[in-house]
Structures are given as structure tokens and as C-alpha cells.
Amino acid sequence: MLEILYQDEWLVAVNKPAGWLVHRSWLDRHEKVFVMQTVRDQIGQHVFTVHRLDRPTSGVLLMGLSSEVGRLLSQQFEQHQVQKTYHAVLRGWLESSGTLDYPLMEERDKIADKFASETRIAQPALTDYQALAKVEMPVPVGRYPTSRYSLVELSPKTGRKHQLRRHMSHLRHPMIGDSTHGDLKQNRGAAQHFGANRLMLHASSLSLTHPVTGESLLIRAGLDSVWQNLMNQFGWQDLIPDVPRVEFVPEPSQDNRSE
Domain boundaries in the chain? Predict the structure, then answer.
């Protein structure tokens, strides 16, 4: 059973577990468990994807309950009208906050994009980032006698493939558990000493306009046991508060709006 964060007659949001594929893919023919099929069976009706989360990423995943609502939600994502907030654990101490404006080359899959043109152009990519906390643990990983980690809040303003992982790697603070753009030695150390055996990236919340009612909808997803365990070990347990899953705020009436 998946944790349903919000459901009405038009849409449903779940807390996607790390390691789950959103939908069936011929690239992963041997997989048996998928979010879409599980949600469909759980609520007894078809669902329509409107955005994606990478397989190793956990957090808020939104789906429409009709093709029309799915189309309207997809438009909000495509037009960058949805505010997405992530949390991540990075290697080292990230001291600053700001907006990273660093174009990214298109990443292609070796199989799915086998016959694609070799011509690739760097695409604009923007990420807001805020350092929330840092810690130094008395555990040697690599050539240093201690290990340093940072907790950050991330908000992508564009939607490039693996944007958040690649941007943090560009800052020389790769995400813990990132097997593609990260530090494999640090990944093994974090898994061995702190139980961080997954990509430490969590889609914490989505803020959007309800496609039918027009109300403001904020959906939050709680942390899984791996995240909670790490937060407790690092003394960060109060930094991502246990807030209500959903805030559903009606728009002010026309008469009360400022001119």
C-alpha cells in the first residue's frame, strides 16, 4: 500500500518510495512493482501521470484521475507554475545559498537514445538552493579522519534530466547516494556508517493551483525511515518539521482583492 497524501474526485497524490518506478518501462523489463499500477489498484480507477520522479527519489508524486485533468496539470508543470521543493544531503559543507544558473547538456540513455542525433546544445538550467545545516562526524571516509555533510533545500526552476544532482555535483557537493554524478567512496561510507543506502533526495512538497477548483494546494510528503534515521544521527531531526500533509487554501473572493 502506498501512502496517499491527498485525493479528491479529480486528482491524487502519493508519497513515492525510493526505488520505485513511476510506470512500466521496456528499459526495466524485469520490474514487477510500479507506482501507477499500484495506485490504480489501490483506489480502483485509472490514473494519469503529469510529472515524473526518478527511480531513486522519494516524495510527492501527483497524478490526474482523468485525461483532461492530467492534461491541465501537465500544462502547469510545463509552464513552471508548480513550485517544487526538495531536500538533499550532500558531501562536504555547503556554506552558501543562492540561485545556480548553469546550463546542462542533454543527458541521453544509451539504449533509448541509441539512434538520436549526436548534436546536443547546453540547455538553460536554474536551481534555487539554501543551506540548512552542516555536520562533521568522527568517521573516516576517504583520506580524511572525519566526514562532513550538509542538508540543503532545493527548488528547480527548470526541468532538466537529473538537474538537481548535476547542479550539486557542479558545486562540488554531490548528493549522498548518487551513483551517477556522486562520490562512490562517500556513498559507500554513508551507507556503511549511517545506513544511508539510497539517494538522499526527497521531493518534500508541491505547491500548485487546483486545475478544477482554482484553489491553492500545498502537498507535503514525510521522510522515510532511512531519512529519519540519518536526521536523528546528525542532530537534524527538527529541521524538516512534521507539518500537515495538505494545506488547501481558497482563493480570496473577487470583492476582497486589491485593485
Answer: 3-252
Contacts of 110-115 with CB under 8 Å at 24 or more apart are 111/27, 112/27
Residue type, 84: K
- Among residues 8, 28, 41, 54, which one is catalytic? 54
Number of other residues whose CB lies within 10 A of the CB of residue 251: 13
C-alpha to C-alpha distances, 97 to 1, 89, 133, 171, 219, nearest whole angstrom: 38, 15, 11, 11, 24
Model's pTM, two decimal places?
A: 0.90
Q: What is the pLDDT of residues 174-210, one digit of tens each?
A: 999 999 999 999 999 999 999 999 999 999 999 999 9
Residue 54 is among the residues annotated as catalytic for this protein: yes
Q: Domain 3-252 in CATH: superfamily?
A: Pseudouridine synthase (3.30.2350.10)
Distance, in Å, from the CA atom of 241 to the CA atom of 153, rounded to the nearest integer, reads: 13
